[in-house]
Amino acid sequence: MAKPAVVVVGADKGGVGKTTVSRTLLDYFSANNVPTRAFDTEHPRGTLKRFHPEITEIVDMNSTPDQMKIFDTLSAVAPSVTVIDVRAGLMSPTLAALRDIGFLDAARSGQITFAVFHILGSSIASLDEIAETASYMIGAKYFLVKNFINNTSFFEWDQATYNSYFHRIKDATELTIPKLNEMAFEQVEVASVPFLKFVANKGPHDEAANYSFVLRGYVRHWLANVWSEYDRIKLTDIVGSTKQPASRPAGEK
User: Fold this and answer.
1) Which of 122, 158, 211, 247 has the smallest number of CB atoms closer than 10 Å to its CB?
2) Can you state the angle between helices 182-191 and 213-232, rounded to 10 degrees?
3) May I ask the CATH class of domain 5-180+224-238?
4) For 2, which DSSP code?
5) DSSP type of residue 78
6) SS (H, E, C) 140-155
7) How many other CB atoms are there within 10 angstroms of residue 82's CB atom?
8) Which ranges of 157-202 does DSSP label H, i.e. alpha helix?
9) What is the distance between the alpha carbons of residues 219 and 224, in angstroms, rounded to a whole number?
10) DSSP readout, 212-240?
11) Based on C-alpha coordinates, what's the Rg of the chain?
12) CA angle 155-161-167, nearest 5°?
């Protein structure tokens, strides 16, 4: 069995598109035949589960039994990758809990692969988050994600100031999630399906759908650009999976 890999997607600031990034990761792993499960920490309602219900479980990260559901089963379940979509305001407490249970020590010793996708906002608060997160990132793959999906403008502060925060974390890598056409994004939200299913014109249960050809084209092009970023950082290699020929969105090479 492959070494367990845990991918945390989060930020303490709300409204930066954390779940959107989680959805692109789940589609990317699916297209590359990487067995994956997901946990949605927006308890009790959940958002990620609405789009990926078959592989997603809603949990309360403040609950010890729910923490056990995730971390006591890392080596006992078939999926080699666990994606945790951390709700707004819970990033720092989640990392502190991972420290307290010994997870970070296990990651440092190489027993577990740990990657963090830190979704940045456009305010100085996001830079403060980087400083707070730095102490937890020893032994982790750390990605700072500029997510333009919400029409965010980066960055309003002085570049030297940004660099002073960014360089506090050794080997941190920047990623860019480009903007998706607003109407296309809204249509996927209404359809409540993964981006891949929307592109393939399929409904929640793989039934034939009738989504707009134009909007599917926008999503296809956007998703291919997002996946190019994941290819650039060799994400499948990071999580320890042998890269299979990816099922790219139809029409993309």
Assistant:
1) 158
2) 100
3) alpha beta
4) P
5) S
6) CEEEEEEECCCCCCCC
7) 21
8) 159-166, 182-191, 195-199
9) 8
10) -HHHHHHHHHHHHHHHHHHHHTTHHHHTT
11) 18
12) 100
Domain spans, the chain: 5-180+224-238
Helix-helix angle 213-232:18-31, to 10 degrees? 80
User: Does 155 sit behind a cis peptide bond, omega within 30 degrees of 0 on the bond before it?
Assistant: yes
Go through the chain and tell me how many residues it has: 253
Question: Using an 8 Å Cβ cutoff, are 209 and 219 in contact?
Answer: no
**CA dist list (Å): 54 to 57, 58, 62, 142, 181:** 9, 12, 23, 28, 27
The pairing of strands 81-85 and 36-40 is parallel
What is the C-alpha to C-alpha distance for residues 81 and 92, in angstroms, rounded to an integer? 22
Q: Which residues of 114-132 are buried (b: 16+ CB within 10 A; e: fewer)?
A: bbbbbbbbbeeebbebbee
Q: Note down pLDDT in tens along the chain; length 253 residues.
A: 568 999 999 887 777 789 999 999 999 999 999 999 999 999 888 899 999 999 999 999 999 999 999 999 998 777 689 999 998 888 888 999 999 999 999 999 999 999 999 888 766 566 667 777 877 888 889 998 888 876 555 555 566 766 666 666 667 888 989 999 999 999 999 999 999 999 999 999 999 999 999 999 999 999 999 999 999 999 999 998 655 545 566 544 4
Burial of 250 (0-12, 13-18, 19+ CB in 10 A): exposed
Hey, is 54 helix, strand or coil?
A: coil
SS3 call for 176: strand
